[in-house]
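User: I'll paste a sequence; please echo it back and then give the predicted structure.

Assistant: Echoing your sequence first, then the prediction.
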Amino acid sequence: MKKSLYLLLLNLLILSCHSDNKKATASTNEINKTELDIKNLNKVIVSDLNKNNETENFFELIAEEETSIDFINKVNVDEYKNFKSYPQIYNGAGVSVGDINNDGLPDIYLAGNSVKDRLYLNKGNFKFKDITEESGIGKENYGWSFGVNMIDINADGYLDIYVCKAGPYKEEKYLRNRLFINNGDGTFNEEAQKYGLNVLGFSVQSAFFDYDLDGDLDVYIANHPPTEVKKGGAKNLTKLVDEIKKGILRTDEFYENVNGKFVNKTKEANLLNYGYKNSLIVSDINKDGFPDLYVCSDYSQPDLYYLNNGNKTFTNIINENLEHITYNSMGSELSDINNDGYLDIYVTDMAPSDHIKSKVFMASMDTKKFHSFVDHGMHYQYMLNTLQLNNGDNTFREIGQLAGIDKTEWTWASLFLDIDFDGNKDLFITNGIKENTNDNDLNEKLKSRQKELKKPTLSFEEFMEVVPKMITPNQVYKNNGDLTFTNTSSNWIDNNNFNSNGAAYADLDNDGDLDLVLNNMDAVASVYKNKSEERSSGNLIAINLKGPKSNPFALGAKISIPFENKTIYHEHYTSRGYLSSTGYKIIIGLGSEKIIPELIIDWNNGTTSIINDLEVNKEYGISYDKTTKTTLESSIVKNKMIEEIQPENLNIGFSHKEDKINDFKKQVLLPYSQSQNGPFLAKADVNNDGLIDFYVGGAAGQVGALYIQNKDGKFSISNKTPWEYDKASEDLGVLFFDYDQDGDSDLFVTSGSASFDENDPKYQDRLYENDGNGNFTKSNNIPKNYTSNQKVIANDIDNDGDLDLFIGGRVIPDKYPYSPKSQLLINENGIFINKTEKFAPELLKAGLVTDAVFSDYDMDGDEDLIVTAEWSPIKIYENDNGYFNSVSLTSLQDTEGIWFSVEAVDLDNDGDEDYLLGNLGLNSKFKASTKKPLHLFCDDFDNNGTFDIVFSKDYKGDLVPIRGRQCSSEQMPFIAEKFKNFISFAEANLQDIMGEDNLANALHYEIKTLRSVCLINEGNGNFKEIPLPRQTQFSPIMDFLIADIDQDQNPEIIAIGNLYATEVETTRYDASIGSVLKYDESKNSFNVLKSSKTGIIIHGDSKDSKIIKVNDNKVMVITNNDGPISLYKIN
């Protein structure tokens, strides 16, 4: 029952919980009134939320006999109309849900491919009536429908229907889009031509939005080319890109609503593009008030992120603002998945999670083609789903692999909705392809069938008999509230035996939760009832918005519900997922919250309504005309802890320029390049003027740079550089230290990478002696050693008053992951002697050393050595009167990881040092645990003189290879000879493939953790392991910086990292923007400070960092591989 309620709005200026970048302005403090329509929902208020509901069933499939929905989306193929002549033939069709007769019940429109569309009227209680013919839609119901959208295009208060047409036709009448205008009496007239929307462009989906904020709705229409012309090969890319830029090749169209008539403004709006589009989504992604676009492209053409410039033009910023994207982009969704008030982007691909499917149906990445795409501005594209987490500055971190939703089979639609109302948006996806022509063995099967039938060619029917047919179930993922998702498909939704494409959610029975409607291929459309009221679920709020006269359904409105530690955020657009549009009622889960302190509605015209103290588990009708409105102005968060400085402002022009070395030539299966590990920094007052200077290393062929600080706070490059003669070497670890005890800082530079052959003289490390005035000369006081090194640290190991060195061996070129020799160099009167065998023989096999620190872990008065390495446990070498021996500690068991960094710091102020350790992280295709380790085997398995790498994982109790048949055969040709097809390789275990004896004799490592951690030193050789927060697991951590950035006298931890140089089938690690952590001793945990408050957002392949005092300011200096230095001033 509805009633009117007048709520008092007091103190509109107080909006402390609104968001980080909004504030209220009002001229008076007068009492204002808002009128609401309120409906009680039959739901008990929840105080204690049961989060362990993974085994419950939420979605019940309603039988066809009950719903009376008998629509089946048939796809008929023959020798003229099939996937060869029309590649999109199995892409399915969409569904749209909306209340066409304003009776309060959402109705359903189902689009058909080889069959006619159908319109169903909701009669209540999940009963529907087919009104296709009586509504008048049947008169123009022909052609191949793809996307469908219910929209009030003429602002008369009734939903109209826009249908996108394409298909395997040439006749124009089948290919023009349809617009069915709602007459308000249950009938429709087709008036696309009248409105200027009878588009002829092989249209896929439409999105309606007010791009210029003039009050009416404009439309973007995503299309695909008329015929499948194979473009995008490496040799044609230059021509292809040029033709797209010139508008010679174009697909999509944009129409501006000009006085009710739609006028093509594609070129004027800078929206000319080309590609095989599958979906699009619209929202104000950067929260500047203007709606933006994200458009998904299949095949090689990259997705498009169109930023609305606010002047009736758009700019594609996909390359600048997203680090990498999906290759075969299918469905898409914009939703705030972590309740930070910013929209995140999710895009689906067709990536199987099952080992056998992935080896049979996934194509191998073409290395040459991949890099050619990048070189031509077509981005880094990978064959997996991507979840782009919004950084708050309109840049994104891709965390799909960490979230666990990167491989969900052949996925079409993706919809985020809070199924269990715990306050976190869950994920529903549709799956399936009728005929899987991606079978890597298809050609072999066809030849076999030809041989069997004794025919040189197969008929179309015979051909189709060979193509694999499969059903792939839809999936549901529970949002755990920590940036991860759990697959709850086996319980949360009734099992299905059909392939689905389009999907939409709506409250079909007005009970306050979201039900589902699916458009299935060759199966009856599905209606799922949400049974949340019978299950473990939280509280909610349902909202029906009524907008201003020109936009009655309030498209583009933004809803924010701020709480103490989160903001639940939703933008009101219905075109979502894949080819579909959702219902207009907004339903938001609230968890155990019992009251809504503040509901903020940002209307599309720039005004805002704020409603306080709303009760939960109610449905609110909120009308633009009946709410008090104020104007919110954007404001930048002031007093950030850290402020970015442009390097040129300090006269720092260094940019690391990596030499282009193909590390994968001999070791095809290498996980990432071993030649892109720098640059590193060292700081010291080299000329004794009281100002700190710094040296940054150069890549092979690039001179390192010594920056001398001037009194004005700027820097000058030293022109007295003996290292210029050593520029052929690649600088890695660098260290300023006084090796000759003359009171100044000398410079040690390790030479590393895998740019040269093993034992090449260019791997010789270097020592440069300082004359006290910042003038350096090369010294010969170090031993000859041609190991590729990285880390160098100094300590008085033998207690003779001078500094000795530990040098960590990084890699043996072309022999990854065999261990190089690390060294202890003892300083004897200024001459360094290699005494590793005498004092620390175990260091000769310390592994692929990445970092090290001298630290007295056992508080016995001498400095021990803590070393991190790839494919190694955390190692502590105990100092026993200058002799170093590894110690076996219970607390360090099962720490085998891919470690990159270690930092010693007393976090708990108990007098001993604790240790921060940076691992590969959890946002990776590699997974590891003590129960299911990640394995690596290496040997010259085919006896051809190269070292072959084999990564392996557990699959149903057997070890299986992680890499596929094609790339494995490139490294070891015997695999292709032994396994003639992909299925035999996929079904074989590692012993079958490599041979049991070969594996037994090979180098073998196991990884049991990939998580970055902190070891709290409890004394007596005991450590308590504390996992670092989820945000630090997005990428490998390459360095930790300790600094008090919030001026509370307690240091924060700044973790930096990334690793761009992966092989092309491994998504590059690029999701770190720097994390600022504060240790909470009382809870033995870390808090992550928001980047919006700290000011730290570092974009780059960060490797090393230092704090340098400049003009009484502390400046963070951060190096980036193959890029410029980043600078941040601590305020």
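The CA atoms of residues 674 and 754 lie 6 Å apart. The longest strand covers residues 32-40.
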